[in-house]
Amino acid sequence: MPPQPAYILHSRPFRDTSLILELLTPDYGRIACIAKGARRDKQRRQRALQPFAPLLVTLLGRHDLKTLGPVESAGQPLWLKGRAVYAGLYANELLVRLLPEGESHPLVFSAYQRLLTQLARLTGEERGEQGAVLEWPLRCFELHLLQALGSCPELDFSPLDNGPIRAESIYRLTMEEGFAPVHLPAGAVPRGNDFSGAHLLILSAWLFAGDENGVEEGAGTLEHRAEVLVAAKRLCRLILDPLLGSRPLKSRELFRQVYGAS
């Protein structure tokens, strides 16, 4: 294999001195390899094999489990702080759990790079209204990942209507048919798997915008932005939970232990 840009998603001990690494690369997606002697050479080799650090790696061997060859730094490590660390660990765990091994996903790689860059700008202590600057990039990454997996329905189109989502309408998510129009009682707030058409259109624009700034401009007031974030989190959970199954996410549990939040 030619040298590949890569990030380390997960590592675990292997035998006495080595590590098994789960890498994210643009050409091979998620791929596992053995880093021989990495636990023995702590001063040099292991220090270079840290999460959130852009690497250029060479993978050797013909078997499914490759051997890690030469490793070079491909840029400054992105130091995440506070809550942003847990957001990064959560993204890593999603990729390990959901991304098929060996499949090329350059758009997922780009979305992950963008997420880390955005998280690295944060103090890690954002909460309340300020917490939106952490939520925006995380929800955007989730949507891009689900789209790449073919699990995210079209956010701006209703198959049953055979037409575009209308901002003034309410839609119910079904995994088989996407978003179908429904009628709620006057004054009822969309909950569960019901979503405002206006929110869906903002989230659709979000996917194409590539960052949170373009979406914030279209989301209107702070109150409206908060509503869109709540809808985005609800949508992502509805789609992710069946994919993840009953085994809980370790990063989510760790975040709850530290910050007492879901």
Which features does this protein show?
single chain; 262 residues; alpha+beta; OB fold (Dihydrolipoamide Acetyltransferase, E2P); de novo design (two linked rop proteins); 2 domains; three-stranded antiparallel sheet; 22% strand; RecO; DNA damage
Describe the structure.
The protein has 262 residues and is α+β, with helices and mostly antiparallel strands. It folds into two domains: 4-73, OB fold (Dihydrolipoamide Acetyltransferase, E2P) (Beta Barrel); 83-259, de novo design (two linked rop proteins) (Up-down Bundle), CATH 1.20.1440. The protein contains eight helices and ten strands. The protein has a five-stranded mixed β-barrel with strand order 1-2-3-5-4. A hairpin with a 4-residue loop joins strand 6 (157-158) and strand 7 (163-164). The chain starts with a strand and ends with a helix.
Q: How would the blueprint of this fold be written?
A:
Elements: E1 4-14, E2 18-25, E3 29-35, H1 42-48, E4 55-60, E5 66-73, H2 83-98, H3 106-120, H4 132-148, E6 157-158, E7 163-164, E8 170-174, E9 178-182, E10 194-196, H5 197-209, H6 212-219, H7 222-244, H8 250-259
Parallel strand pairs: 3-5
Antiparallel strand pairs: 1-2, 1-4, 2-3, 4-5, 6-7, 8-9, 8-10
Helix pairs in contact: 2-3, 2-4, 2-8, 3-4, 4-7, 5-6, 5-7
Q: What order do the helices and strands follow?
A: EEEHEEHHHEEEEEHHHH
Which term fits the overall shape? elongated
CATH topology of the largest domain: de novo design (two linked rop proteins)
The CATH architecture of the largest domain:
Up-down Bundle
Strand percentage, roughly? 15-25%
> Overall pLDDT, averaged?
87
Radius of gyration: 20 Å
Number of domains: 2
Largest sheet: 5 strands, mixed, barrel
Task: Tell me the CATH superfamily of the largest domain.
Answer: Recombination protein O, C-terminal domain
Distance between the amino and carboxyl termini: 41 Å
Sequence stretches where pLDDT stays below 50 over 5 or more residues: 214-218
Per DSSP E runs of 2 or more residues, the count of β-strands stands at: 10
